[in-house]
């Protein structure tokens, strides 16, 4: 496809961009109407490349003024490198909480049980399905007004923060939590061949101190884990809203300023992640929770977060979560901040080095990168034909987004935590699915899934439901109108991508 830069050009642009400090304004995803100002090419260019390599990593520098370590943090970043994580000796043979349940899902049966915790990651590759085929449960525990406009009706709220600040919304919120996603959704997802969900949740579910946020979402996450387990579905717990807002977007909970890297917010983020890891990284959840995502779409730029600070924080948060979670096969994910895989290769190589160097069995690192690959956000994508959209998806494995040459599942597992079948060609707002629309959606969706299954650990559609919209944003609508009785892995256009 056209428009992708060679690596050399990419590097040159990256250096130029870092020099002049020009950053694209692209760090919002899934704008409801797709009006973008930056091009897709900008996405993977305007970032600085890290200079660290696998051998000299970690050598990122971080200014104390940007980030103060808690004196009690046992394996934090230091100027000269990372202190070694302590040896964890988890208690073995703990019974699973629901061990006597007869409804152990089929996904659990193929993997060694319980995990050999002394050889923590040896089971990672055999434990999980070859491909996670997932969907996000968006606008459930973190509201987004464009997705669930009915919830916002009658308020002036623009995000979770202002919604929760509005008088009388607490009951409405509980009503939404208890009705928007139910056990029936998990049964349906399972029947479609979905084997994973990514569940966005905000930090305030665990500590809302000093904020207007309403707590209580965690009880619904816990319910969802039970439903997921009953239906053979893995769960990625995604900390979608971080203290101070990591991107200033509505979907972080608080639209406006980005102050994630100010005050104590980075440390507070780690405290919250440890709370999550202590609870959901326990062995009693090891058959259902496959990962914890540290941060979603941190905005990188001179007006927002520094890439170097974000990378150093990623390492610290990874160690903190690994040390807290009993389950050592848990993926610990970090979003790339739209800086591209290249910016994270050396971070992953450093954190996963023990696994990649000693692995003779194709074992995987547990620090993983989350990429969001939309073709409906940027002006440049608007003018593509269906064939060009498909070609662009098919080229992911050989171009920047999922570039395989620098990474492997051992050094840096990749996940596509968000993508969509919605492009202007598959955009029906009237709910009328003409044969062309059905066909186009199926082709584009299959091409994307083929690319992701070729070059990543798995994919997660954004999103299960899209309030009031019966178009291709919603997996529910796609299953009903495009797939009928076909499961999601059924290909109508096998080999649509040249790589097979
Ligand atoms: C790798 O393993 C060694 C020996 O177990 C340990 O000392 C070291 O801290 C580990 N490195 C990382 C990056 O976890
Ligand atoms: C860890 O697991 C790998 C792969 O199963 C195996 O080859 C290796 O011997 C194990 N190491 C230990 C110390 O048990
Ligand atoms: C599950 O699918 C059935 C059949 O399409 C549908 O009638 C039902 O409403 C769905 N359940 C939920 C909770 O969406
Ligand atoms: C909650 O967050 C506040 C800062 O906003 C912090 O002072 C407090 O210690 C946190 N509480 C817990 C239980 O971690
Ligand atoms: C354990 O089982 C109970 C009763 O079936 C269920 O309500 C709960 O959600 C389950 N917990 C988990 C974590 O699966
Ligand atoms: C998609 O949008 C572009 C620009 O708005 C337009 O030129 C193109 O014809 C549209 N494609 C389709 C199939 O509607
Ligand atoms: C990525 O791969 C390209 C080409 O294979 C190589 O030139 C480059 O140095 C690699 N980058 C990193 C960060 O390893
Ligand atoms: C989908 O259609 C709506 C309504 O016409 C429009 O506002 C939006 O920009 C379209 N989305 C895309 C990705 O073309």
TrEMBL record:
GO terms for biological process: cell wall organization; glucan catabolic process. Its main location: secreted. InterPro entries: GH (IPR017853), Glyco_hydro_5 (IPR001547), Glycosyl_hydrolase_5 (IPR050386). Residues 1-22 form the signal peptide. One of its GO terms (cellular component) is cell surface. Keywords: Cell wall biogenesis/degradation, Glycosidase, Hydrolase, Secreted, Signal. One of its GO terms (molecular function) is glucan exo-1,3-beta-glucosidase activity. It catalyses: Successive hydrolysis of beta-D-glucose units from the non-reducing ends of (1->3)-beta-D-glucans, releasing alpha-glucose. Its EC number is 3.2.1.58. Residues 172-466 form the Glycoside hydrolase family domain. It is found in: Secreted. Pfam families: Cellulase (PF00150). Belongs to the glycosyl hydrolase 5 (cellulase A) family. This is glucan 1,3-beta-glucosidase. It comes from Friedmanniomyces endolithicus.
């Amino acid at each position: 496809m056209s428009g992708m830069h060679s690596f050399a050009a990419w590097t040159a642009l990256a250096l130029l961009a870092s020099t002049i400090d020009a950053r694209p304004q692209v760090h919002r995803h899934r704008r409801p109407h797709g009006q973008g100002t930056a091009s897709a090419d900008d996405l993977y260019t305007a970032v600085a490349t890290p200079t660290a390599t696998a051998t000299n990593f970690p050598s990122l520098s971080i200014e104390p003024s940007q980030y103060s370590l808690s004196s009690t943090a046992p394996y934090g970043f230091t100027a000269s490198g990372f202190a070694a994580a302590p040896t964890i000796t988890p208690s073995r043979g703990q019974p699973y909480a629901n061990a006597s349940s007869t409804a152990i899902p089929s996904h659990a049966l193929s993997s060694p049980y319980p995990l050999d915790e002394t050889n923590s990651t040896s089971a990672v590759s055999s434990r999980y399905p070859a491909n996670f085929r997932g969907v996000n449960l968006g606008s459930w525990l973190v509201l987004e007004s464009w997705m669930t406009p009915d919830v916002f009706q009658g308020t002036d709220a623009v995000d979770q923060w202002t919604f929760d600040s509005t008088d009388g919304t607490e009951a409405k919120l509980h009503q939404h939590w208890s009705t928007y996603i139910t056990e029936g959704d998990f049964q349906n997802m399972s029947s479609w061949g979905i084997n994973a969900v990514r569940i966005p949740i905000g930090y305030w579910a665990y500590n809302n101190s000093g904020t207007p946020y309403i707590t209580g979402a965690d009880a619904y996450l816990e319910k969802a884990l039970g439903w997921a387990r009953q239906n053979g579905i893995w769960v990625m717990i995604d900390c979608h809203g971080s203290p101070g807002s990591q991107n200033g977007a509505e979907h972080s909970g608080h639209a406006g300023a980005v102050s994630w890297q100010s005050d104590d917010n980075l440390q507070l983020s780690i405290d919250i992640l440890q709370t999550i890891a202590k609870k959901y990284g326990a062995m009693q959840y090891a058959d259902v929770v496959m990962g914890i995502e540290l941060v979603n779409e941190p905005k990188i730029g001179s007006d927002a977060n520094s890439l170097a600070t974000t990378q150093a924080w990623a390492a610290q948060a990874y160690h903190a979560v690994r040390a807290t979670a009993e389950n050592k096969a848990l993926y610990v994910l970090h979003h790339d901040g739209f800086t591209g895989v290249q910016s994270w290769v050396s971070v992953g190589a450093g954190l996963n080095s023990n696994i990649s160097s000693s692995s003779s069995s194709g074992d995987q690192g547990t620090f993983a990168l989350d990429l969001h690959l939309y073709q409906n956000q940027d002006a440049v994508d608007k003018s593509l034909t269906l064939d060009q959209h498909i070609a662009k998806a098919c080229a992911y494995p050989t171009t920047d987004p999922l570039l395989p040459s620098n990474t492997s599942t051992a050094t840096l597992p990749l996940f596509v935590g968000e993508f969509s079948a919605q492009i202007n060609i598959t955009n029906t707002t009237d709910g009328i699915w003409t044969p062309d629309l059905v066909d186009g959606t199926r082709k584009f969706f299959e091409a994307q899934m083929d690319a992701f299954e070729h070059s990543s650990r798995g994919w997660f559609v954004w999103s299960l439901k899209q309030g009031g919209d019966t178009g291709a944003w919603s997996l529910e609508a796609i299953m009903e109108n495009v797939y009928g009785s076909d499961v999601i892995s059924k290909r109508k256009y096998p080999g649509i991508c040249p790589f097979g």
